[in-house]
Amino acid sequence: MDYNFYMNEALKLAKKAYKKDEVPVGAIIVKENKILARAFNLRQSKRRATYHAEILAINKACKKLKDFRLNGATIFVTLEPCAMCLGAIMNARIETLVFGATANKENVISCSELAERCGLNHNLKIIKDVQKEECEKLITSYFAEKRK
Amino acid sequence: MDYNFYMNEALKLAKKAYKKDEVPVGAIIVKENKILARAFNLRQSKRRATYHAEILAINKACKKLKDFRLNGATIFVTLEPCAMCLGAIMNARIETLVFGATANKENVISCSELAERCGLNHNLKIIKDVQKEECEKLITSYFAEKRK
Question: Which residue of A has its CA nearest to B60?
């Protein structure tokens, strides 16, 4: 699987979020080399605490497959998922999580620790640092602009 | 605030989930003594990994208040939230989480540990064991019936 190709697709979505003045995060769900769902963060525009890119992408993919399980799927996210989104990825039994930028906050539980300790008998494969620089640059410039 | 009253309302919702052959969990969001949202688990009926009672209730409450923040709100859930739902509760900045039955699984991160380690500068107040027996009985009998 071409991780860089799919992460670039997720980056395009993150840029759409940026244009809407949302924290720029994009997500794509791929299964059997087909893109099942694309989404970006819409928390502020739609005024919903839960409308992160990953949740929206998972909902779309479930709708498409008419299934609450996404076995065998891979999710590409430009930023390391928060606890809510990592929990959703586990609940959906997504096989692999690929992310770009790391959240890097002190005392914050890592995706891998949370995946192990969320009580589901499901082994999530996690791959990080894909297109890391591009993903980080987008987030950093968004917050730098915000601080102005 | 009358915790038992609101938890009983959440229990009524959990029983609706039970009738639909869903894991029986109900949630209610209250702010200033008004019920903002009621929801129950619809994961299987709607075929969405994310359609837990808490997520659906948070979405409804956000829609009602036209806000992605639910400051000052209390969420009542019949069962201890999973990682996804606890993350959503934190993302929505809900003030207080009240739950009935405890998930009680080995090696599973507790709500209080996850709330502290999910990277948000938000102090969630957590109250457990409200209508504990009733909540547990419902979950236990659902799974006992399933095993038959």
Answer: A48
Edge to edge, the sheet with strand B26-31 lists: B34-40, B26-31, B74-79, B96-101, B125-127
pTM given for the model: 0.97
Q: Do A114 and B83 touch (CB under 8 A)?
A: yes
The per-residue pLDDT for range A40-96, each reduced to its tens digit, is: 999 999 999 999 999 999 999 999 999 999 999 999 999 999 999 999 999 999 999
Contact yes or no for A58 and B69 at CB 8 A = no
- State the ipTM, two decimals: 0.96
Distance between terminal CA atoms of chain A? 40
| B102 contact residues in A (CB cutoff 8 A) | none
Task: Tell me whether residues A88 and B86 touch, CB distance under 8 A.
Answer: no
